[in-house]
Amino acid sequence: MSTQIHQTARDLVNSLITLGATQDKISASRAAMAKLRQAILNPILAAPYVAPFTENLNERQEDCFYLIASLFALNPNHQSGVSFGGAFKHLREKSDGMDKRFSMILGARQEQLPDLIRHGIRLLATESLALDWEKLLLDLLYWDTLNKSVQRKWARDYYRHSEAKNSEKVEGDESL
Fold first, then answer.
1. What is the pLDDT of residues 54-69, one digit of tens each?
2. Within a domain: residue 38?
3. Who is most buried in 31, 59, 93, 143, counting CB within 10 A?
4. SS3 for the chain, per residue?
5. Which residues pair with 131 in a beta bridge?
């Protein structure tokens, strides 16, 4: 994908971050965030905040932009460099059922992602866990690549530190 789409993704996310940061101070931002949350069920409601960024995008790319805007309103916590897998691994530390849920996401086709990612974002929001929204948008745009690079990156981020902990458990367990 072009450098232009990367810049457009960055511009949208910066706009969303501004809305999220000012929602407690500016009533228009609060109203915008409420409208974006409603866009989960009816994406066109996000048009005033997303459409200015969608010129020259194809339909699938535009769908990803609308999805990110509505998901951001559910969890406006942003941290640069943290992938969805990296954020989700913190949920793994709190619940054993996260591995199955995460595997479902990794194995999903593009058209299955909106519901699965939405549930994941809500789980992240319950723990106030942040992720990099620009990275998530770009990852969704690249989801269907043949080499599954996004899925492999998320898997590395999700399992990386947990595997080190598992190794420590095995070494410390004398019954093995």
1. 999 999 999 999 999 9
2. yes
3. 143
4. CCHHHHHHHHHHHHHHHHHHHHCCCCHHHHHHHHHHHHCCCCHHHHHHHHHHHCCCCCHHHHHHHHHHHHHHHHCCCECCCCCHHHHHHHHHCCCCCHHHHHHHHHCCCHHHHHHHHHHHHHHHHHCCCCECHHHHHHHHHCCCCCCCHHHHHHHHHHHHHHHHHHHHHHHHCCCC
5. 78
Q: Could you tell me the two tokens for 42?
A: 């009816």
| C-alpha neighbours within 13 Å on the C-beta side of residue 67 | 24
pLDDT-flagged residues of the chain (< 50): 163-176
Number of separate domains in the chain: 1
Domain, as residue range, for 60: 3-162
d(CA 59, CA 65): 10
pTM for this model (two decimals): 0.88
CATH of the domain at 27: 1.10.520.40
pLDDT one-digit tens code per residue, 144-161: 999 999 999 999 999 986
Instruction: Report whether 121 contacts 5 (CB < 8 A).
Output: no
CA distance 43 to 37: 9
Instruction: Give the integer Cα–Cα distance in Å for 143 and 154.
Output: 11
